[in-house]
Amino acid sequence: MQKPKLIAAGAVLAVAAAAGVWALVAMGDEPGESRPAASAGPTDPVGVLRAAAGKVDQQTYKLALSSGGTTGADGTVVLWDPKAKRGLETTSLKVPTGEVKIERLTTGPDVYVRVSAPDRRIPVWDGKTWWHVGAPGSPPAKQGLDNTKLAGTLSTATVVRQTGAREYAGTLDLRQSGAVLGEGVGGVLGDRAGAVPFTAAVDEQGRLVRYRIELASEQSQTAQLDLTYSDFGLSVTADPPPADVVGEDPPANIPGA
Q1: 32-69 b/e with 16+ CB inside 10 Å = b?
Q2: Neighbouring C-alpha atoms within 13 Å toward the C-beta of 18
Q3: What pLDDT digit, counting tens, does each position of 239-256 carry?
């Protein structure tokens, strides 16, 4: 079986793994009039971006992820409360017969995953069962990219230049970011991990709003991981699912199991 292409999706490796199994069986918070502009902060490009990365964890937000080659509905949307560690991450992946959807619900220490697939020959991908993949008091299981921490990689920016109004470009040193990027992305980067090109943009309040990390496939072709942050301060609800639709001991083909 061919290795799945690198895609920018919630828990990228989890989505790729899900796609692989499928192949086997299927073959806002905006400033207002009464709100002052952001207070004075760092003005050097490196300082601006490191401050922007830190601000991501100060408010709830919406994060949209895609790859440079992604079209249509493929991609991931995350609604996240960084202080309460609660939120919903939804990944959509087109397949020949429809769409596979992976939902990851984090309610603090508990993490649940539900997978919906157009073909019901994988019973556990029924779109109804929320598989419990995390336990109270232990770190939630996570495969691939940790999308809720991706902004933190911006703090590794070294060489940075300003390219426009609140727009920047430079390189990242991702050699120590394996816990965020996951083993798969780290393997793809290889020797390039010490100098990975990126571009970023911040809003008038110094918050990160756009972030692109340049990746390389195994064929040395360029691929991008595109992140867009928006809807700062939105209401995020993430309650545990009803007990009668929760499954314990998730099988191996459930992402994060």
Answers
A1: eeeeeeeeeeeeebbebbbbbbbbbeebbbbbebbbee
A2: 33
A3: 999 999 999 999 988 887
Tell me whether residue 6 is in a domain.
no
The predicted model scores a pTM of 0.78
Q: Is residue 211 part of a domain?
A: yes
What is the H or E stretch that residue 87 is in? strand 86-95
Provide the domain count of the chain: 1
Whether residue 180 is contained in a domain is answered as yes
Residue range 118-148, pLDDT digits in tens: 887 888 999 999 999 985 445 544 456 789 9
Q: Which of 15, 242, 244, 246 is nearest to 131 (CA)?
A: 246
DSSP strands (E only) in 108-191 = 111-116, 130-132, 157-164, 167-172
Give the CATH number of the domain where residue 176 resides: 2.50.20.20
Q: Where do we find the tokens 């816990």? A: 179
For 195-237, the DSSP string reads SEEEEEEE-TTS-EEEEEEEEE-TTS-EEEEEEEEE-TT----
Residue from 99, 98, 125 nearest 113 by CA: 125
The parent domain of residue 111 ranges over 12-29+42-231
Name every residue whose Cβ is closer than 8 Å to that of residue 93 and which is 6 or more positions away in sequence: 7, 9, 15, 18, 19, 74, 99, 100, 101, 102
CB-based contact 45:51 (threshold 8 Å): no
Closest residue by Cα to residue 44 from 176, 159, 139: 159
Is 108 among the domain residues? yes
